[in-house]
Hints:
The chain is built from 5 helices and 7 strands. By secondary structure, it is α/β, with parallel strands linked by helices. The chain has a 4-stranded mixed β-sheet with strand order 5-4-6-7. Strand 6 (127-132) and strand 7 form a beta hairpin. The longest helix has 17 residues, at 149-165. The two termini are 16 Å apart.
Amino acid sequence: AAPYVVAEQAAPDPDFPTVAFPNPEEPGAIDLSVAVADEHTADLVIANDPDADRCAVAIPTPNGWRTLRGDEVGWLLAHHLIGKGLKGTLATTLVSSSLLSKMAAAHGLPYVETLTGFKWLSRVDRLGFGYEEALGYCVDPHQVADKDGITAALLVAELAARVKTEGRT
């Protein structure tokens, strides 16, 4: 199915009148998206910030919608990429979860932990995937060697489509 769009946010407006602050990490920032998703019984919500370098994801649960933490999205994306045959180094920052290091070890992939910020992550030699818990993901470093919410959103959609065809949520 085609994505549902929040009508009130479809046209660019530098005043961002529908949110207190236009970062999807902020409480309330994706409330309109969640309402549209709920209205259409969507499988998930994907939201970017205005410069599209961050990507937020929310999922339906029996208790309503839940926004995934940056670490959770990072683990899911890493797992999906590893399953697709990812080559290269997995990397995250010292303020992010240590699970990525365990995933790398379990799959025989190199791992690097950096200082906070993509200026450090983007410098990782042979980076295959990198993320930081603040909703920043580098899922295709050969095309975009920085955090990129667009490619992350596409990969989230691909992952969601795959698990749906497998009969999972």
